[in-house]
Amino acid sequence: MAKKKSKPKAPGVVVTNPKARHDYEILESMEAGLVLTGSEVKSLRGGGASLRESFAVIRDGEPLLIGMHIAPYPQAGYAQHEAVHNRKLLLHKDQIQRLIGKTAERGLTLVPLKVYFTHGLAKLELGLARGKKTYDRRESLKERDAKMQIDRALSRRR
């Protein structure tokens, strides 16, 4: 049986959150730094991470990423990290204050979209999002399907 080809990721992108754009309407996005240990960085570079069940909150003026899974690094030895724990996010004070105001609004939440490396530093793309209703999700699926059919028809004509 042939291997299923996966979509190519953008350069430097380690892991994405595919359900985020399906379940949420992303209003705006920003880049945040991640505070990680050495074994977490090594495991991330190897692609052993998942954002599926994660979300971000601001507690006591400090942004935290909750629920991100980073697999243990086999060669870490005694300096092993926990797979799932709260990780601190690095943002400017004015960004944190603005996010506190925005998330105080009803229905807005912080959703991690992707993790990538830039100039050797681990970064997280964080989205300010509003949850979609079931009928909104169905509507987006219909729009995407219609767009694919139009693209196919146009490519056949050429």
Structural class: alpha+beta
Low-confidence stretches: none
Shape: globular
Biggest sheet record? 7 strands, antiparallel
Binned strand content: 25-35%
CATH first level: Mainly Beta
In short:
This protein is α+β, with helices and mostly antiparallel strands.
Topology readout:
Elements: E1 13-16, H1 18-23, E2 24-34, H2 38-45, E3 49-50, E4 55-59, E5 62-66, E6 69-70, E7 87-90, H3 93-104, E8 108-118, E9 121-131, H4 134-157
Antiparallel strand pairs: 1-8, 2-7, 2-9, 3-6, 4-5, 5-7, 8-9
Task: Describe, in plain words, how this protein is organized in 3D.
With 158 residues, the protein is α+β, with helices and mostly antiparallel strands. It has a single domain, classed as Small Protein B, Chain: A. The chain contains four helices and nine strands, in the order βαβαβββββαββα. The strands form two sheets. It has a seven-stranded antiparallel sheet with strand order 1-8-9-2-7-5-4. A two-stranded antiparallel sheet has the order 3-6. Strand 8 and strand 9 form a beta hairpin. The model has no long low-confidence stretch (mean pLDDT 84).
